[in-house]
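ugh ok fine here u go
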Amino acid sequence: MELDDFVAICPAQWFRGLVFLFAKPPQDDIQIVKDLGRSMLLPPPIDLMKKGPLTPRQIAAYHQDGFIIARRFFDRQEMALLSRSAHEDRALDQHSFSRDDGTGASVRLSLWNHPGDGIYGMFARCHKLVDSVEQLLGDEAYHYHSKMIMKDARVGGAWAWHQDYGYWYQNGVLTPNLCSVSIAVDAATKENGCLQVLKGSHAMGRVDHILSGDQAGADMERVNEAMKHYELVDCVMKPGDALFFHSNLLHASARNDSDKPRWSMICCYNAKGNNPYKEAHHPRYTPLKKVPDAMIKKVGAKRFSDAASSVAFLEVRKDASATSLKKKLPARTRA
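structure:
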């Protein structure tokens, strides 16, 4: 292991383990990393020697900042196939629904539980994506759900500040060891409402959430205080860039008042060891069959091979992630 790689996997909060590490005689690199991990009681256990698409620096940045952006993760041909499929897919459009952002505007999205065998499934199941997620989770990953966010030009609403775990917690998921990957289908800019994150805010743990319109929004007293301590980052992305983010990372996005659409596909994964203890509208552990990366282009050329039954589009009435918070609202907020 090179010194630069060793430094890359040691963010500031990990250095307490160095005393333990260097008090022992020199050992081979693998044993050193294992001892370092044990000494720091990392949650969850991270196999820093696990080979995969992400570098040690990227893995360290994810755990320190709560997110990373992998540039050009998917190539132009792969993204052209996904963009054409998404924008021309009648089934995707027919199964879309809107979420009021609390200001009178709304965000349109389509959501499905099982990846299926079409182009959306090939993205969600391809080795380079799933292997990367498993590097970050430190465990076998399974598909929790995917969704297409359709922020159309001039009409796409905002997403309130929230954590994904703020409402997945309601689904019987015990820990926040989940990871979402937002793939830019269109360019994401400040003008068309790109995702915004508070860098490092996942360290706050789960924040209370309430309904804001049809969306689950984080307690704004906490969010406003967090903004004084954590850097706000605009996640400007080009098609093919992939944003990996922790389920406790505070994130939001502004309205799309530009003349450019901003569509993105978000693939969400849970760790096998984090299997929900009860049934909910998203699946419990289901083994995910990975596919070679080349299958994206092979299947993408066939276009709409997904049937609604194969991807299990979620009906709006069954999406209880946000609405489950209604019963938890204090009486004064229900009016």
